[in-house]
Amino acid sequence: MLKKIGAFFKEPPAAEPIQDSEKVSSLYKHWRWRIFYSSFIAYVVFHLCRKNIAVALPSMGKALNMSNTELGLLGSTLYITYGIGKFINGVIADKANVRTFLPTALILSAICNLCFVLSAIFITPGHVSFFGLPSATVLLWILAFFWGANGWFQSCGFPPVAKSLSYWFSNSERGTKWSLWSTSHQIGVFSAVMLSGFAIDKLGWMAAFYVPAIICIITGVWLFDRLRDKPQSLGLPDIEKYNNEPVKEDKKEETDDTPYFQIFKEHILCNPVIWMLAIAYIFVYIIRFGTEDWLVKYLVEVKHNSLTLASSKLSSLALVGAGGAIFAGVISDKVYKGNRTPINIVFLICLILSLLAFAANPASNHVLDYIYAAMIGVFTAGPQMLIGGLCAVESSSKKVASASIGFTGVFGYIGAALSSGGTGYVVDKFGWNGAIAFWMISTMICVVICTILLIFEKVKKKKQIKE
Predict the structure, then answer these.
(1) Adjacent-strand bridge partners of 133
(2) Which of 93, 119, 120, 458 is most buried, most CB within 10 Å of its CB?
(3) Mapping DSSP to helix (H, G, I), strand (E, B) and coil, where does residue 133 land?
(4) Sign of the CA dihedral 43, 93, 174, 280?
C-alpha cells in the first residue's frame, strides 16, 4: 500500500529525448503556457479554502458564541502548521511529481474544510459534557484540529509551483514570470473574500467553507489533467538549452564536495543578514495577516458596515495590492539597482501612514475606506515579496535558496500565528484601537530592523571595497 502511494507521488523519470527541433519548439510553447496558467489558477483556488475564514469570523463567532481570542486560536493553528509544512513540504516537493502532489494537496485541503464545518453541525455548543469537558470546548479543539490540518495541506501548494516555474522558465525570464505569478496570491484573497461573502449572504456562514471546498475538489481533478512535472518527463531538453541560455558558472558550492549542512550553516544559520530578514518577516506577517483576517470584523463592529460592504473593502486591499509586489520589484531593480532594503523602508513607512488614515477615516466615507484599504494592500505586498523571498535568496547561496526561503517562511508564519491569536487577544482586552496600535507597532519594529540592515549592508560594502 505504502509502495503504491509512494509510486503515485514519485517524480517521473525522464522520457526519451525528442530529436525533432520543430516538435520540441511546439511542445515547449504549448506546455509552458499551460503550466503557467494552471499554476496560477491552482494558487488562486488554494486561497478559497484558506482565506474564507476571514469573512466567516463575524457570523461564525455569533453562531458558535466564540470570543475573539478563541477565533484567533483557530487562525493560529493554520499558520503554525503552514509555517512548519512550508519548509518540510518544500523538501518533499523537490522529489515529488507536480502533477499528483499539488492536486492531491488541494483536494485534501477541501476535505479539511468540509470536516471543519461538519464538526459545527454535529457538536452544538451548550451544556453537554464530553468526557468531563463542555461541548463548546470540545468543538473549539476539533475545529482547531481540522483547521490546523488544512494549514498543512495548504503549505503543499507553493513548493510544487516554485519547482514548475524554475524548470519551465529560464533565469532571464523567470523574474518576470515569477512576479506575474505572485499576483495569484492577491487575486486568490480577492476571490475568497468575494465568494465567501456572497455564500454567507445567501446560505449562511457554513457556506463559506463547503462552497469553496466543492470548487477546490473540482479544480483538483482538472489540475491533474493540466499539470506535468519537469520538461524532461515529456522528452524535452533543459529550458536553458532550449533558450540557448548557458547556466551561470558561479555555483561553486554546487560543483564541489562541500557538505550540504556546511553550506546551510554558513549561509543561513551563521548569516546575520538572513536572521535579520527572518525576524523582520515576523512583523511583516503580523500586519499582513492582521489586516487580511480581521479587517472585515473591524469594519462590521467599528464602522458598522454590512458584511457585504466590509468584504468588498477587504477585496480592494487584495486586488489593488497585487500591484504592490510588482511595483516594489521593478523600483528596486530600476531605481535602487538591486538594493531591496531602501524600498522596503519606504513601503513600510507608507504602510504606517495608510493604517493611520484608515483608522481615522469617518465610517460614512466609504470611498476613502476603499482607497486606504488598497494602499494597505500595496504597501504590505512589497515587503512581503521582497524580505522573505527575493532578499533571502540574494543574501544566501543558490545551493540553499529553497532552504533560505523556507527558513524565513517559518518565521513569517510565527508572525502569522502571533497576528491571529494576538489580534484577537488585544481586541478582547483593549478594543479595536488596540489592534490598530498592535499592527502599527509591528510595522515600526520592522522599519527599525530594515534600517539596521541597511546600515549593516553599507558597512559591509565599505569593508569589501577596502579589501
Answers:
(1) 130
(2) 93
(3) strand
(4) positive
- Cell numbers that stand for 407 in this block: 527558513
**Distance between CA 347 and CA 216 in Å, rounded?**
34
Is residue 304 helix, strand or coil? coil
Contact by Cβ (8 Å): 317, 415: no
Question: Is residue 407 within 8 Å of residue 55, measured between CB atoms?
Answer: no
- Is the domain 266-460 a CATH 1.20.1250.20 member? yes
Q: Do 421 and 75 touch, CB atoms closer than 8 A? A: yes
Least confident of 35-39, 122-126, 198-202, 451-455: 122-126
Say if residues 413 and 278 touch (Cβ distance below 8 Å). Answer: no
pLDDT for 408 beyond 70: yes
In 3D space, the residue among 117, 79, 4 whose CA is nearest the CA of residue 414 turns out to be 79
Q: What is the CA 278 to chain-centroid distance, rounded?
A: 15
CATH of 30-242, one of 3.60.110.10, 1.10.10.10, 3.40.390.10, 1.20.1250.20: 1.20.1250.20
pLDDT at 259 exceeding the cut of 80: no
What letters, b where the CB count within 10 A reaches 16 and e where it falls short, cover 256-271? Answer: eeeeeeebbeebbeeb
For the whole model, what pTM was predicted? 0.74
Given pLDDT bands bounded at 50, 70 and 90, which one contains residue 112? very high
H helices of 335-365, in order, are 341-360
Q: How much is the average pLDDT of 305-333?
A: 79
C-alpha 28/C-alpha 19 separation (Å) is: 13
Cβ atoms of residues 442 and 286 within 8 Å: yes
Q: Tens digits of per-residue pLDDT, 297-311?
A: 889 888 888 888 888
Give the other-Cβ count within 10 Å of 431's Cβ. Answer: 13
156 with 97: CB under 8 angstroms?
no
Phi, psi (rounded to 5 degrees) for 449? -65, -45
Residues of the chain with CATH 1.20.1250.20: 30-242, 266-460
Planar angle of CA 263, 266, 267, nearest 5 degrees: 80
Per-residue confidence band for 173, with pLDDT thresholds at 50, 70 and 90: low
Q: List the beta bridge partners of residue 130.
A: 133
Per-residue confidence (pLDDT) for residue 110, from 0 to 100: 97
